[in-house]
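Posting for a labmate who doesn't have an account.
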Amino acid sequence: MEYKCLIVDKEGHIATVTLNRPTSGNAFDFRLMEEIDHVFRENLDNDDDIRVVILTGAGKYFSTGVDLTMFAAAEPEVDKEDLEEGVASSRVQEAKEDVPWGKGTIVGAIVVMTTMRKPVIAAVNGPAVGLGFSVALACDIRIASDRAKFSMIFVKRGIGPDTGASFTLPRVVGFSKAKELLITGDMIDAAEAERIGAVSKVVPHDDLMAAAKELADKIAKNPPLAVAVHKEALNKSMAETDIIRQMDHEIAYTDRMLNTEDFQEAARAFLEKRDPVFKGK
């Protein structure tokens, strides 16, 4: 696919994806939704040279959310009868199962981002609003410019929480604060986002990409198979209620890693007092 709304730059083991609709605040129209799903699903997840992805926005905004001009004259996609039959919920399930409703949509993109092997770092360069905030939350780590702002603006637009926001937000900031942000739609600045744990770190605007790349490089130097199972283990832990079952998962991950070339390389490098060279095998 030729990307018209994204800039994709690959350097070494790091890919930087830039939302590139700056005159529209990097708002998501159908084209951008299709492209971001494609770049994660078909491009980056299948590129064995890429170990970490950075997602950022062009211009002043990370993303102002959905491009509302798409819906100005649109009819509702799901009518009351369909809702009663559970059509809407089945479509979300389809996204997970990689059928058309998921593939090529922002729902599908978020499913891929959260479940793919490679960690995704959001470098939030400016306001992240509504869907823009949801996309940032779908990333594994968030670093913010001191110019960034965040809002779950859905309630102010007269719609429900969207694109996984009611799932990811409470897991990131806690249940009570998530309720507050979702129900009020308030805008918070970068300092408050850091205080409540919505972002890991706030840096001066001009240092944002350097900070994101420094973090990405640190992760990329680790064995990629081990990084992948750590992400998988953490994701699994969010649904686990029994620590013994979670430790069973950890034992399975460790058994899997003991059979990798990267584990052997880590052991040799330690004994030989040198930096390891991991190949993802």
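Reply:
Got it, the structure tokens are right above this. The first strand starts at residue 6 and ends at 11.
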